[in-house]
Amino acid sequence: MTRVELTISIAGALLTAFAIGWLAHWLWSRAARVASPRGDRADELAAELLEIEAERDRISAEAAAEVAAAAALLREREAELSAAMDGLGAARAELAALRGER
């Protein structure tokens, strides 16, 4: 057997051993994953996360609605204040005019 044939046969044996090891690892991890309780826990955590995100979105929408309602109420109060201040200014002007007539 020449040196090249020996190198090729060793490389083939190593490649075959690697392929068999990789296949065995893959089969073992597939078999172990099915029986693992960690998968169930991960599913529970994912479901809980989805529920929490939905609740966060709901609360965020409610907060946005409350902010919009408060802003509308503030605009209404500012309009009332402006009208009251205009009325007060008109009343003062009328009072000054009446005092000036004397």
Characterization of this structure:
With 102 residues, the chain is mainly α. It has a domain at 1-35. The protein is 96% helix and 0% strand. It is built from 2 helices and no strands. The protein has helices spanning 3-35, 37-101. The model has no long low-confidence stretch (mean pLDDT 92).
Which tags fit this structure?
102 residues; single chain; mainly alpha
Write a short abstract of this structure.
The chain crosses the membrane at residues 6-28. Keywords: Membrane, Transmembrane, Transmembrane helix. The chain has 102 residues and is mainly alpha-helical.
Could you tell me the number of beta strands? Answer: 0
Helix content: over 70%
The radius of gyration over CA amounts to 41 Å
> Which stretches are low in confidence, meaning pLDDT under 50 for 5 or more residues running?
none
Structural class: mainly alpha
Strand content: under 5%
Mean pLDDT: 92
The profile of the biggest β sheet is: none
Oligomer: single chain
Q: What gap, in angstroms, lies between the N and C termini?
A: 136 Å
Transmembrane segments: 6-28
Keywords: Membrane, Transmembrane, Transmembrane helix
List the helices and strands and how they pair.
Blueprint: H1 3-35, H2 37-101
